[in-house]
Amino acid sequence: MKASDRFVQCLEREGITHVFGVPGEENADFMLSLQDSGIRFVLARHEQGAAFMAESFGRLTGNPAVCLGTLGPGATNLITAVADANMDHAPMLVLTGQGATTRQHKESHQIMDVVSMYAPVTKWAHAVRHPDNIPEVVRRAVRTARAEKPGAVHIELAEDIAKLDSTYPPMEPRRFRRPGPDDKVTDQAFELLRKARSPIIIAGNGAIRKRASRQLRRFCEQTGIGVMSTFMGKGSVRLDADYCLFTIGLQQKDYVSYALDQADLVITVGYDLVEYPPRLWNPQGDKTILHIDFTPAGIDREYHPQVELVGDIAHALWALNECAAARGVPDYGLDLQRRTRQRMQEDFALHAEDDTEGVIRPQKAIWDVRQALGEHDILLSGVGAHKMWIARYYHCYEPNTCLIPNGFCSMGMPLPGAIGAHLVYPERRIFGIAGDGDFLMNVQEMETARRLDVDITLMVWEDGGYGLISWKQEDEFGRHTDLAFGNPDWLKLAVSFGWQGQYVANARELRPAIDAALAHRGPSLIVIPIDYRENRLLTRRLGEIRCSI
């Protein structure tokens, strides 16, 4: 069998259903093989958009999709979104073409060392050297991408190798349950819980994968211990649960930060150090920490756990739940956590009835979006000032219903990510929020959305500049550099790409506009002039919180 046909056959055996990409001459054989398969190819308008589509697909399904580019510039265009997926633990396969092996040793058209470039931003990067190795390479790639902690894997297939004969058939995928921690360590962990008086939980990215959320909720219902999630742990517990303390992760101290300060035991569940640096919540390095994760804790002066439950998170929490059911739990002192939840709820509703004209507060925009979306609908956030507002004010009922890039933190995800999300869940409402700077980084994918007739809504917060950078510069220096830029006529842009478009400048008109966009079949754009004067006001308010709890 031709090597490119074998490669596609192996992908099919692994359950790969989608390839997103921009092909080139050097992967023409693969593309023709793909056309004859049951795998769907989604043609993107830029390789970065393709990789963001694959990233959201992987985060939502737990199974990798493929993003594809040719050699040279195709590979370099992919890499930013690949790095984003890898650091945010989304399973992904990256497939790039390459020039023939007969010219890779010398200066030649578009030739560069792509594998070496991808090595730092993937779990594994490899060039296929022989057609008979393809079944092993694909099997290893998919297993590596899926294994905890999941991430991106890169495979390079040269144009001449793709044309050769491949002898060996695909390998049969075999999947195994991850082991949990042993009973002795579980007993040590439960002893920490028994001795604690005011424990608290930080739920991270791993808490929304592999059944972990279900066991975490059961644990909280038995113990009453409050849960604050990182930006990427949203939905690990329901927003309406009494033990939900919403989100931690802002640079400034929030209500939840003071509840964390008072805790005598911090239980981290699926927490990655990159999500919220320990120096911001444990500056003295003196917190008693129980680490529950698929992998051992990273080395950090401010994060040095007393006990680690390493292995399958759901199993570790199940074991603690069994201990709690058999031995009981103390009557913890959680009054501060309850007051924290109440204060946060009051904050969320503060601008629910805003009727400002000509500009809309971030709090109002997020309130209306949350009220309009259902429990299983999906919100995607970009990177910028809007991400900070979404992180604090938007909360979830279920895991993986709010996707925020927060490890590599790349701009440009919401539009292509929404396309990928729709292909996973066409029955759900998919809603993206981006700043004007973020949205225009992948604006070309508006054509992809229209061509595929995906049912998505994108809301753009317009301020005519890089708002997050100016916010941070003002906080540190009292002024900011020139960060302003111009924008298109948004409604003409929407019409030119065949989207429904609305420009909403008055707060009381926002919810009807959101409802109309969600009811529209096909892609919709809502643009609002955002009131980023609220950025500095939020900073000031957070600085005054200590005296109000």
Describe the model.
The protein is α/β, with parallel strands linked by helices and 549 residues long. It folds into 3 domains: 160 residues, Thiamin diphosphate (ThDP)-binding fold, Pyr/PP domains (Rossmann fold, 3-Layer(aba) Sandwich), CATH 3.40.50.970; 160 residues, 3-Layer(aba) Sandwich (Rossmann fold); 195 residues, 3-Layer(aba) Sandwich (Rossmann fold). It has 22 helices and 18 strands. Helix 3 packs across helix 16 and helix 10 runs antiparallel to helix 13. The protein starts with a helix and ends in a 6-residue tail after the last helix. Pfam families: TPP_enzyme_C, TPP_enzyme_M, TPP_enzyme_N. Belongs to the TPP enzyme family.
Secondary-structure topology with pairs:
Blueprint: H1 3-13, E1 18-22, H2 28-35, E2 40-43, H3 47-61, E3 65-69, H4 73-87, E4 92-98, H5 114-118, E5 124-127, H6 134-146, E6 152-158, H7 159-162, H8 183-195, E7 199-203, H9 212-223, E8 227-229, E9 244-247, H10 255-262, E10 265-269, H11 278-281, E11 289-293, E12 307-310, H12 313-327, H13 335-348, H14 362-372, E13 378-381, H15 385-393, E14 402-403, H16 414-424, E15 430-435, H17 436-440, H18 445-452, E16 456-462, H19 467-477, H20 490-497, E17 500-503, H21 510-519, E18 524-529, H22 533-543
Parallel strand pairs: 1-2, 1-3, 3-4, 4-6, 5-6, 7-8, 7-10, 8-9, 10-11, 11-12, 13-14, 13-15, 15-16, 16-18, 17-18
Helix pairs in contact: 1-2, 1-6, 3-4, 3-16, 8-12, 9-12, 10-13, 14-15, 14-21
